[in-house]
Amino acid sequence: MPEMNRISNPRLRAVEAFPMQMNGENFICLQDPQKLAEQPVFLNQALVFLVSRMDGEHTLRDIQADFFKAAGEILPIEDLEKVVNQLDEQHYLESPNFRRFCQDLVQNYCSAPSRPAYHAGSAYEAAGDSLTAQIQSYFAHPEGPGTEIIPERDKPLRGLISPHIDFTRGGPTYAHAYGALAGHLGADTFIIFGTCHTPMPQRFSIGTKDYETPLGPALVDRDFVALLSEKLNGEYADEFSHRGEHSIEFQAVWLRCLLNKKQDFKIIPILVGSFHDLFADGGNAGDNPEIQRVTAAIQRTIAESPGRVCIVAGADLAHVGTRFGDPSGPTGSSLQDVEHEDRRFLEAVEKGDAEAMFQSIAADNDRRRVCGYPSIYMTLRCIENPEGKLLQYRQWADMEAGAAVTYAALAIF
Q1: Any idea what the CATH number is for the domain that residue 62 is in?
Q2: 3-state DSSP call for residue 340?
Q3: 161 and 180 in contact (C-beta within 8 Å)?
Q4: Inter-residue contact 383 to 157 (CB < 8 Å)
Q5: Chain centre distance of CA 222
Q6: Which of 57, 81, 106 is the last residue of a domain?
Q7: CATH number of the domain to which 189 belongs
Q8: Domain final residue, candidates 86, 106, 126
Q9: Is the dihedral angle over the CA atoms 315, 249, 277, 54 positive or is it negative?
Q10: CA distance 370 to 363
């Protein structure tokens, strides 16, 4: 019997589960935010019952007995083993097979010379010419900023808040963000704070690998990273968290497209994890010693580095609806309420008030699930006396799927 069939107490990994309909039938979709399990799994009612008991405490015989009590039918143990094996083969279970898979994945990624363009061909065009045409179309889009960008020289652009939603939904808003950059060229180094959507060993992860794109690599400023890492005693060197995360990759693609024929540039990719523990304990982000230390190290490194630095936050805003755990889907009225709260949040960003922005999230325990606020917070904290300008606010909603995501573009001077 293969080793996979020896899983006696199956345990489902920490993955996303949300309801959906296909062909008029109700299913629960399992999806791995870490993309270690690359394909989603759709569970009918019977499979939902079985998987709900895969918690590492129930044996196969326990699950078989529970199914008989609930359904009045005997599920052959061989059929249950097949379900377990299929989930294990697709990397949805904690198991020896999954641990071996992860070890190989980490080793291969860390030994690679650069970070591949993980989402090319799915989230955006994989061919250079097609990608350039795709991005240019968002400037010309009716909701875009237009194709005529007049350079402004009154004050330097020091920061940028850009979405990290997929291009097909948020393309025009990306164009507003990067149109502002095109109008204020001059920075040659870009710190990119990316939103990390999966658990990380630490709150920050500083990447050292160049980000590949279909238009050429976005090179890492290794001198800057070395200076920063020295100030932080080599901490936050969790390279693997960057592998499948899209929030920095999407910014690297837009920078490469925008600056490809205009100037050389380098990036410092920094993933930012959750701040939820801070307001759960009743604290302020500004009082956190770790955040103070990382912020001070970044500010000192900027001061010691030649050239001009611009800080980019890859950050979406609210995530609401049954897809994200709410009891009901979005409605026209509820989305108006979300916009009202989002704009209060964005007013604090425009004022450059990182602490007020954080408190607006803490006040309702992040009820709207604003996934990008840690990256926005760090952007504001690392820029001295920031002043923001809202360029565009948008909402994407799929009422049938019970999901809505909001996002915005802001320039920081």
Answers
A1: 3.90.930.60
A2: helix
A3: no
A4: no
A5: 23
A6: 106
A7: 3.40.830.10
A8: 106
A9: positive
A10: 13
Same structural domain, 181 and 303: yes
Distance CA 38, CA 30 (A): 11
Q: Tell the burial category of 248 from Cβ atoms under 10 Å away from its Cβ (0-12, 13-18, 19+).
A: buried
CB 412 within 8 A of CB 311: yes
Q: Within this chain, do residues 84 and 130 fall inside the same structural domain, yes or no?
A: no
Answer whether residue 3 shows pLDDT above 50.
no
Pair 76, 210 in one domain: no
Is 31 found in the same domain as 145?
no
Residues 131 and 170 reside in one and the same domain: yes
Residue-wise pLDDT tens digits, 115-142: 999 999 999 999 999 999 999 999 999 9
Task: Please say whether the beta carbons of 353 and 341 come within 8 A.
Answer: no
Helix, strand, or coil (residue 270) = strand
Number of domains in the chain: 2
Average pLDDT over residues 276-287: 90
Beta bridge partners of 312: 160, 192
Q: Which structure tokens are listed for 160? A: 């940028």
Same domain, 121 and 82: no
Please give the single-letter amino acid code of residue 122.
S
Alpha-carbon gap, residue 194 to 211, rounded angstroms: 13
Q: How far is CA 148 from the centre of its chain?
A: 31
Q: Nearest to residue 192, comparing CAs of 290, 109, 115?
A: 115
Q: How far apart are CA 103 and CA 117, in angstroms?
A: 21
Tell me the backbone φ, ψ of residue 13, rounded to 5 degrees: -70, 170
Q: Both tokens of residue 387?
A: 């002043």
> CA–CA separation, 352 vs 366, rounded Å?
20
- The per-residue pLDDT for range 342-353, each reduced to its tens digit, is 999 999 999 999
In this structure, the answer to whether residues 94 and 219 fall within a common structural domain is no
Rg, C-alpha atoms of the chain: 23
Residue 146 neighbours by CB under 8 Å, 6+ apart: 139, 140, 179
Residues 131 and 266 in one domain: yes
Does pLDDT of 22 surpass 90? no
**Residue 9: domain span:** 3-106
> Is the full-model pTM beyond 0.70?
yes
The pairing of strands 403-412 and 319-320 is: antiparallel
